[in-house]
Design goal:
It contains two helices and six strands. By secondary structure, the protein is of the alpha+beta class.
Length: about 160
């Protein structure tokens, strides 16, 4: 729920700015993008290194799937990627953009966040290397806090049904 509300709020804020931002949903991959600037933003739950300069680079809280891998490959290779065989159809506008990840992690009654450009996935299918990380000031929180969890790209959703 927190992931969906974060995506919705980013879209609301960027669309209110009304300077060319749009909603991307290519392959059910939710982004906000600006084709003129070549920027797409996806929301991802991060680990405890998110939002801080530490010796360990931040990783996603969950494994990333093939769509994220494709976006990160585009971040690394740039426009030459569209000459590859996996792009038989012309890419959608949001796929032409570099995909930045707004990573969030709630801990210690604070929301830590950063906007970062990934260039690889590690062997654990989580983020490996970053070209750039923009660390933002944490946001103080009150009450119960849950780290945002985005839909898992690698596994179908599970619904547990049982008696109360």
């Amino acid at each position: 729920m927190m992931w969906a509300e974060t995506v919705a709020e980013i879209r609301t804020q960027l669309l209110d700015v009304n300077q060319g931002w749009d909603i991307g949903q290519t392959d059910n991959y939710e982004t906000s993008f600006h084709s003129g600037r070549g920027i797409a933003i996806a929301v991802v739950g991060g680990d405890v290194n998110c939002g801080e300069r530490t010796f360990s680079a931040p990783k996603a809280s969950r494994k990333r799937g093939p769509v994220t891998a494709k976006r990160i490959r585009k971040n690394l290779l740039g426009q030459q990627m569209f000459d590859l065989p996996e792009f038989k159809d012309p890419p959608q506008d949001d796929e032409r953009c570099d995909t930045w990840f707004l990573m969030l992690n709630a801990r210690d009654n604070r929301m830590y966040l950063e906007l970062s450009l990934a260039t690889s996935l590690g062997p654990d299918s989580k983020f490996g290397l970053w070209r750039e990380r923009i660390i933002m000031p944490y946001i103080p929180l009150r009450g119960a806090v849950v780290t945002p969890m985005e839909p898992d790209e690698t596994e179908p959703p599970r619904v547990n049904v049982g008696r109360k």
